Amino acid sequence: MSSSTPVSGLVVVDKPGGITSHGVVSRVRRLAGTRKVGHAGTLDPMATGVLVLGTNRATRLLGHLMLTRKAYDATIVLGVSTTTDDAEGEVTATTSAAHVTEEQVREALLAFVGDIEQVPTAVSAIKVDGKRAYARVRDGEEVVLKARPVTIDAIDVHRVQTLGDTVEVDVSVRCSSGTYIRAIARDLGAVLAVGGHLSALRRTAVGGFDLSLARTLEQLEESFEVVPIEDAARATFPVVELDAEQAADVRYGRRLALELAEITAVFAPDGEFLALYEPAGDVAKPLAVFVQ
């Protein structure tokens, strides 16, 4: 059911497999009755799970949301390497992993936890000389990306099962934005000298938005639900309630006599979300104003 009055807010989608993030955006544009829909970080077509979208004014909020921590459930297959480091790529090598033990898997994964340098998968969206890495790979080029700093808070191992010459490993990962779970699968296979790739990936949380808040596309078709921009701001940032004079200053983009410790959402006396402000010495300056 389409919304007759476009609403500014967040839509938390439980993305299905086999569809691109852009495909989800297209569906939500139709349901929301607006072209102004953006996302806070894509998911590969193979992947499922939490995809945070913004509608109308909230698209400007997406870039400021504290969505730097993410969580995933994943299945790694040891013994098979692919061109894309996941199940959608062509197999490049097979090596029996039947000898790999659960203890070896757990010990190897310990080295991936913490602040590490990770080489992104070659089929990432990272630009190399103005062209996406995945496009260069698709054109037959060999792409080697530079290592980037990422933080992996935890890797919890749930299952290690030998299946013929391969070993399946189910894990949960909590990490920073920019971490490639496919790269963890690839690098685990390299450490164990058997190769590896990702066979399943489900994102379970983006910042404070988890699967309990997510709705499938089918559910959104039946009842389109938007987290209002006011609620999203209150749930994500520290809040300051302004008086009428301060609220008027915000509408003109003026600095406020507030001492802030971090990016803060400011609200008018009637509860309207006005802007995000950030520290600027003894005052606060506007980072993003959402009203006129």
From TrEMBL:
GO terms for molecular function: RNA binding; tRNA pseudouridine(55) synthase activity. Keywords: Isomerase, tRNA processing. It comes from the Bacteria. Residues 182-225 form the tRNA pseudouridylate synthase B C-terminal domain. GO terms for biological process: mRNA pseudouridine synthesis; tRNA pseudouridine synthesis. The active site is at D44. Its EC number is 5.4.99.25. The keyword Plastid does not apply. CDD domains: PseudoU_synth_EcTruB (cd02573). It is an enzyme of class 5 (isomerase). InterPro entries: PsdUridine_synth_cat_dom_sf, PsdUridine_synth_N, PUA-like_sf, PUA_sf, tRNA_psdUridine_synth_fam2_C, tRNA_psdUridine_synth_TruB, TruB_C. It holds the Pfam family TruB_C_2. Residues 237-290 form the tRNA pseudouridine synthase II TruB subfamily 2 C-terminal domain. The keyword Isomerase applies. Belongs to the pseudouridine synthase TruB family. Type 1 subfamily. HAMAP family: TruB_bact. This is tRNA pseudouridine synthase B.
